[in-house]
Design brief:
The protein is 73% helix and 2% strand. By secondary structure, it is mostly helical. Helix 14 (324-345) packs antiparallel against helix 15 (352-365). The longest helix is centred in the middle third of the chain and has 29 residues, at 259-287. The radius of gyration is 25 Å and the shape is globular.
């Protein structure tokens, strides 16, 4: 009997020695994630910065005629004030993705804020101080300011996906990404409304540039002093701890061998190009049929407002259901139909209601899927860093945007007579370019619907980290979710 007791005591002692006397901190981090209220301030600063940069990008597009007269430039040269954003972003994007994944969110955002501010100020100074007869110098100074804004864009526009992953729990990621991404659309909306209202004559262009420069300075101040760290003290989710875990070059190699990601890269890049063409050329397309700059601004505003509404609905739906693929394929299909409809009604005279309705539908179905696509790019490419996977998609969109705009401009023909035109001296036919744009949008939408299939790799990795094994299907956040502590 005494031998049995001794044996039991020996076993208990060995088991007691094997059990750690301190809590398993790694397990505790997996089961209890804490989020902080400061995340909303970080999101606010990013939204304001994204909005400001978008207003700089499209300052001149809604008032192309007035800008051309004030700067002494042609319409093609005015278009390059917007196109410079795509050209600069292409080579800079690779360095930006490396910075975001390596140096962190704070450094990248602050650098983007300062470049954005200097670009806005230089545009205003160049347009206001120089009063000589040589308009070339004025145009070059404004272009240099636009170039600084273009340098800032990758530091800002690549950030929403990374910020959402680092600061927000998994059940808020898509919504946070949606809010940050759609702030860029809000900037486009403000530019579409404010530019025609303020710059009703060429002489008001400097006033317009001042209106956009003041917020850029305030936002730079908020970013520099307000954002104190790149990450919260503790991660909000299991995947946040390994965010950007793959080295940059290794991540690029993984992306280029991922078939699902390559399909998304090409097809969604084409979608970005279509909407860039729409935002940049809308006023020039509609003025041929007698529509005013104000009406073009209203159509652009409807496009963006309905896009934001659609993004809000879609972001909440995807956060709850995790049906990224189904949501994007349905919306891509309706986007192609809307693009075809726009290519037809935009060539009709005195059809304001039809044009406005089609622009609204185009935004609701097409513009709304941008943040969901960025989240999907991360899901299908995990464990590659968020900035790298989302950044390459943006680069694809910028490259295709430059190609599309140059192609569409090359396909225009000068019209000898257009009695209803409000375009000024240059009256161009956009019939062929619009049909080509609709064809490209339809082709890539079909390719995406047919060929894109993937697993949700990040969600699977989080479930495996929390529960120890992969689940048979990706569960919704309410199913067996780990605790999230609010602070």
């Amino acid at each position: 009997m005494e031998e049995d007791v001794a044996e039991i005591q020996t076993v208990c002692s060995s088991v007691s020695a094997a059990v750690p006397r301190t809590p398993n901190t790694e397990l505790k981090k997996l089961l209890f994630f804490k989020v902080y209220k400061i995340r909303w301030f970080v999101l606010l600063v990013l939204c304001l910065l994204n909005c400001s940069n978008a207003t700089l990008w499209l300052t001149f597009a809604p008032v192309a005629d007035q800008s051309a007269k004030f700067l002494g430039a042609s319409l093609e040269e005015v278009n390059w004030l917007s196109l410079v954003y795509m050209v600069v972003a292409i080579p800079l994007s690779f360095g930006t993705t490396w910075m975001l994944d390596t140096l962190g969110l704070r450094t990248t955002l602050i650098l983007g804020a300062w470049l954005n501010m200097f670009g806005a100020l230089l545009r205003f100074v160049g347009a206001s101080i120089y009063t000589g007869h040589d308009s070339t110098v004025r145009y070059l100074l404004v272009m240099l300011g636009q170039t600084l804004g273009a340098l800032a864009q990758p530091f800002i526009i690549f950030t929403p996906t990374k910020m959402a992953a680092l600061w927000f729990p998994d059940q808020q990621r898509a919504t946070a990404n949606m809010i940050a991404s759609m702030s860029n659309a809000l900037g486009i909306l403000l530019a579409s409304i404010l530019s025609p209202v303020i710059a009703d004559t060429p002489a008001r262009i400097p006033d317009l540039l001042l209106v956009y420069a003041v917020p850029a300075c305030i936002i730079c101040f908020l970013a520099t002093l307000g954002i104190r760290s790149s990450t919260p003290p503790t991660p909000p989710s299991a995947s946040a701890e390994s965010s950007g875990s793959e080295p940059f070059l290794q991540g690029i190699k993984l992306l280029l061998t991922n078939k699902a990601y390559l399909v998304l890269l090409l097809c969604f890049g084409s979608g970005i190009a279509v909407f860039t063409c729409f935002s940049t050329l809308l006023e020039q397309i509609l003025c041929v049929q007698g529509y005013t700059n104000t009406f073009a601004g209203v159509c652009s505003a409807l496009f963006i407002v309905f896009g934001i509404v659609g993004a809000a609905v879609l972001g909440i739906y995807v956060d709850k259901t995790k049906k990224f693929i189904e949501a994007t394929k349905v919306n891509m299909s309706f986007t192609a139909l809307s693009c075809i409809a726009f290519s037809v009604v935009s060539l009709m005279q005195e059809q304001k209601v039809a044009v406005a309705v089609v622009c609204s539908l185009f935004g609701f179905f097409g513009f709304s899927i941008y943040p969901v696509f960025m989240e999907l790019a991360v899901e299908c490419s995990y464990p590659v860093g968020e900035a790298t996977s989302a950044g390459l998609v943006f680069v694809s969109g910028q490259v295709q945007s430059v190609i599309y705009i140059i192609l569409l401009q090359a396909l225009t023909k000068r019209l000898a007579d257009s009695p209803l035109s409000t375009c000024g001296d240059a009256v161009l036919s956009w019939r062929v370019p619009m049909m080509v744009l609709a064809g490209l949008c339809t082709f890539f939408s079909c390719c995406y619907v047919i060929f894109f299939h993937t697993r949700y790799r990040r969600l699977e990795a989080e479930q495996q980290a929390v529960y120890g094994t992969k689940q048979g299907k990706v569960s919704t956040p309410s199913d067996n979710a780990p605790s999230v502590i609010l602070s």
